Fold this protein.
Amino acid sequence: MRRKPIERHQTLREKILETIRDAILKGTLQPGERVSEPELAERFGISRTPIREAFRQLESEGYLKVIPRKGAVVASLSERDIEEFYAIKSILEGYAARIAAENLTQKDIERLESINEKLQQIAEDGDVKNFFRVHNEFHELFIKAAGNDKLAELIQQLVMKFNRLRLASLSQPGRMEISVQEHKKIIKAFKSHDGEKADNLVRRTATIGAEVLIHNMAREGGQDQALTKVLPQVDI
């Protein structure tokens, strides 16, 4: 019997953020389109100040671009944006996994397994937003285990700026299930303290994320063939 997703009360600020994120991810708001402060203020019955604060956060996550005297517009994303982000992410997180393989305790590994089991359930429920949140916990655990604060800070800054890409990737059909299966392989490498294997697997996971998005961009652009991928393939 399937468990019902846990419902959590949202603050008004979270509702504003979710409303804009969903509109962008679903295509209701298109790249370059202006996001109206007055309309949002009227819809939620609030002043423009919290709206502008939400815009700043969404800009930091890569959803919006705030232009002086024009306001907020939906940020455009290109194939190059995807390639560059996932290439850097794969290098940094792969290195973190390589180090973490030597540092993770049995308790840490059990925690990773527990998180991945939860992700499996969430994937079956089709809850992308909750999957995204718990998915972050999985990566944050082994990144922290690497014991390199500067590395963790760099990764955090990078992924925060490209949350839009990461959520869009997980939203693609079958992507959550693939992520769960890739995590199982990563955990197996951690169990055997195989840093090189863990590194390669984490890089492979990032490569899959990029390819899914690029393929989707090609499909939405009316192309019959997926765009050429320039990210390196990883032999496992």
The longest strand covers residues 64-67.
